[in-house]
């Protein structure tokens, strides 16, 4: 079995600058019980491979689609080498459990720092970390990768108070999408519907063609949140709004056969002349 440690370590056991992500043997990786993070598709654990790292363990690989997603994220991450992007060190597969082995980014994510720990960041430090993320995102885009899920939870923050320095790393590429050379946008069916609603660009919510500008919108929301220390859309229940939209669409399903007749709607009598059917009344009102 190919082993990253056998080919890309220095005499002292540390990784050299020519590190290429490979596969770790079971005996080389120690996964600890301490969980440092959890998401929809994976859990993250403190680990050791002669030095600290983390293991992102996928919850379930149950079919070809899940396996393709695992391979896609790994392929994108192993080609990204930037000081403000968490490095992918390799993969670990054992007993049908698939994991990424990643660089250990000391600190907390930006969301926890701002809202759970309720700490503020000095203005000069804010400018510095935003410059770091913008540089990293520009680098990602230059490699034709759209992140699609930029949010405070995906940004690992490390502030060292003794010298007032701060650094930040982009940590999660679970929803990242590759945009082929020569294209600025891709069809919404190609990128799916994942993401965090409060940070999603309007074109994603509207299921329109989406491109690198969607990341710029998402990070603009993150910048606003960092400066104000307020949650975006805090005065709006996004889950409730999405549910109401879904219920409205479902109520219109029985009327789909009538869609070819939409041009004739302006010629119909007012809604008050029809039986009190909510879906029909709504549809007539929408096209008045």
From TrEMBL:
Residues covered by the Protein kinase domain: 30-288
SUPFAM superfamilies found in the cross-reference section: Protein kinase-like (PK-like)
PROSITE patterns assigned: PROTEIN_KINASE_DOM
TM region(s), chain numbering: 243-262
Protein's UniProt keywords contain Transmembrane helix: yes
Pfam hit, one: Pkinase
Molecular function (Gene Ontology), one example: ATP binding
Top-rank taxon, per record: Eukaryota
Keyword terms of this UniProt record: ATP-binding, Kinase, Membrane, Nucleotide-binding, Transferase, Transmembrane, Transmembrane helix
Protein name: Protein kinase domain-containing protein
Species per Swiss-Prot/TrEMBL record: Guillardia theta (strain CCMP2712) (Cryptophyte)
